[in-house]
Design brief:
- The protein has helices at about 5-35, 150-155, 160-180, 310-315; strands at about 55-60, 65-75, 80-85, 90, 95, 100-110, 115-125, 125-135, 145, 200, 205-210, 210-215, 220, 230, 235-245, 245-255, 260-270, 275, 280-285, 295-300, 305, 325.
- The protein is an alpha+beta fold and about 325 residues long.
- It folds into 3 domains: about 1-40, no CATH class; about 45-140 and about 320-325, Sandwich (Immunoglobulin-like); about 145-315, Glucose Permease (Domain IIA) (Distorted Sandwich).
- Strands 10, 13, 14, 15, 16, 17, 18, 19, 20 and 21 form a 10-stranded antiparallel beta sheet that branches.
- Strand 7 and strand 8 form a beta hairpin.
- It starts with a helix and ends with a strand.
Amino acid sequence: MTLEERHLTRSALEQMSVRLIGLAALLAAAWFAGGQMPTKLRPAAETACGDSVRLSWEPASPRQGALFRVRVSGVPPGASLVGRAGPEILHFMPARGISGAIVSLAAVPIDATDSLGIEVQCAAGGRADTLTAHVTPTRGAYSVERLRVAPAFGRPPDSALAARIQLESGRAAEVASASHDTPRLWDEPFVRPRASRITSGYGRGREYNGTITSRHMGTDFAGAPGSPVRAANRGVARIVDAFYYGGNVVYLDHGSGLTTAYLHLSTQRLAVNDTVERGQIIGTVGATGRVTGPHLHFIVRYGTVTVDPLSLYAIVGDSMSRPAASRPK
């Protein structure tokens, strides 16, 4: 072996020694940081989204029956995100004014008792990282309202009427679920369908003629018969019909899982598949269906989860640009 060959061999051995020492240090750091050895090491160049990606949400403890916002920050250019919060799909969009941040609406069911799981997959460079977290909701305090209605609305329906009610409920649920397949149609903040006072809030138990039969899954706005009702935002009319409980109804699909409904109308000023603009008059206040008097019953859903309409304005009244409460990956 020549002197040059011995020199090259010694140099190669020294380089290998340095690599082994570095690997040992990396494994030791992983042991002390996480309490266990990593199952797999991969070069940083192959990491999909990396350790800089963070999952957060606002508010930190969203209320039962409310919308909240999920944010993924530190997302590298070109990465794609998919995810769920509970059973509902997340629809991500860039957060305005915050580089590398992506946001989505999410919803807590009114009957949620345990934590709500969030899972987001961030994919880039042919690989994917999964972020998981659990949101602990705040208990909603919902009172009971005692109402007197016509006897026909206060007793259990017969089989034919029950079938009609189930069919109408199924149609509304289909619109809510299918909204996940509709691209987001809105960009501006949402507006209230009526500028009038709220006469009954979301979530209250409803006792009809002495029997608690339902929850009030919407918000009632005061209004005289014939007063205008406006679309909360840009969307497509999916249902324009007369329902047993809801009377004359309009259901709008705003896309990305978000729908709104307008019940007890006296008139409807649009047709199925019409595209309406934010603030457009779509009907007038009435007293059709199961009511105690004229008013607008307004419903907001994210996917199939019915939420407090006021939480919609709290979250997207500012175009989803406020900072979120940080939570670990």
